[in-house]
Amino acid sequence: MNTLIAQCAQQVLDGASLDRSQIERLGQQSKEALDDLLYHANRIRQHFFGSKVRVCSIVPGRLGGCDQDCAFCAQSVRYDTPIDKKAQTLTDEQILSAADQACDNKVPHLGIVYSGKTITEKELARLESLIRRIRTEYGIGVCASLGIINIDQAQRLAAAGVTRYNHNLETSERHFGKIVTTHTYQDRVRTVEAAKQAGLGVCCGGIFGIGESESDRIDMALELRHLGVDTVPMNFLHPIPGTPLAGSSTLCPLEILRIIALYRFILPKTHLKVAGGRVLNLRDMQSWIFYAGCTSILTGNYLTTAGRDAKDDFQMLKDLGLEVA
Ligand code: SF4
Fold first, then answer.
1. What is the mean pLDDT of residues 64-78?
2. Does residue 300 have a pLDDT over 90?
3. Which CATH number is 292's domain given?
4. How far apart are CA 157 and CA 195, in angstroms?
5. pLDDT, mean of residues 57-77
6. Is it the case that residue 231 has pLDDT exceeding 90?
7. Ligand 1 center to 70 CA (angstroms)
8. Residues enclosing ligand 1, CB less than 6 A?
9. Number of domains, the chain
């Protein structure tokens, strides 16, 4: 048994946070220590979350047509990708139908996701009434991901019944400028703070496999810990033809499991949600994410790539003895 990993795990289980040098040393352990890292990450998950797992799905309320330049994103008009350059906005009926489908699939949370830097007043007003309808007619939780918002907009979403706001940091502040130049890391941090101030839960994480270093990954985790987010979506690059990251190689499954486990040590009480890139990158090892410390999954399709059928995911959870929270 690796002593350093076991000691760090005990410290976390005792309720104390790891400091940066401990985290760095955890990340530097040899490949042979991966079994120990996963074993203890799983203990930490079981200690703080038991057998409960959160499941959510998303609907792209507005797809494509974005003038921003996030280097991994198929929805930017700056890149020649398979997504239409003209934004496609779903009608009320289409979004309600997605809520209906989430209900049928017994998925308790639906995220409405909009492409673009921010949202217009007209769209926000439409969504306020739509969100109220979803809450009363379907009874499921509604999350929103509408880009950069201010405190007033966050308060209106909270009043309409949104439970959680999603806005990702994507990576470390140092690496951010290599991935996005049309808005800043601080824009994103301010949005997270606005959502928190409005009393919304915050779903905030990033994407891995975009040329970031181990140090960037640790920086982002520490920033998320500092911000006090309650859910960290972990996306793993699915290179999209036409984007600047099209030629990137994907992360191997064992590296993905190692990153999840490291995050479980750093953020022991925070939900870790494995989202985009799960199917492509993990292949037959998808069920291992829970052993690495994951407590939440995004089921169904992702924004621009195919995901997995909810019934297959629910079967996987049942086979693992896990329950939907
Ligand atoms: S991630 Fe969001 S803001 Fe960035 S290009 Fe894609 S849709 Fe636009």
1. 97
2. no
3. 3.20.20.70
4. 9
5. 96
6. yes
7. 6
8. 66, 68, 70, 73, 75-76, 115-117
9. 1
